[in-house]
Amino acid sequence: MVAQLPVPSSSGVSSRMSRQRRRDTAPEVSIRQLLHAQGYRYRVAWPIPGLRRRTVDIAFTRARVAVFVDGCFWHSCSQHKTIPTANGDWWSKKLETNRLRDAATTAHLEALGWSVLRIWEHESPADAVVRIVDLLNERRAAFRERAGQRESLAVPD
């Protein structure tokens, strides 16, 4: 757990950080709009079973596909990772805690049989949708294949 919040370096920084959205960010909404326009239906901010206070940004519950749209700052994108100089030690710990929580969430969902896709906010929404649709098609094909195997093992009447 991260230690108590440090004193903000300025009132402007404090004000800006307090306005950061937790959900319905611009990249997330763009991806959802493109998916919806293509006829895909999904759950938004879907609660993760067994993990209190954690949600999937975009969940395809039947296919068991979880999509997270991660912000570059908050989730330590390798391309855009920055650590503020003011209160740097606190921020380093905070961002590392976020990264570890992301990894634990992914592992938990995978253990439940879900496929997890993490999209960075800097990715093109159209490219992200292609990745999501590809994963959905893979999952659906695998489910159909398993269902077909079960039917072929069934004893005929």
Automatic annotation (TrEMBL):
One of its GO terms (molecular function) is endonuclease activity. Keywords: DNA damage, DNA repair, Endonuclease, Hydrolase, Nuclease. It comes from the Bacteria. Residues 1-27 are annotated as: Disordered. InterPro entries: DNA_mismatch_endonuc_vsr, Restrct_endonuc-II-like. The keyword Transmembrane helix does not apply. The keyword DNA-binding does not apply. Pfam families: Vsr (PF03852). Belongs to the Vsr family. This is Very short patch repair endonuclease. It comes from Dactylosporangium fulvum.
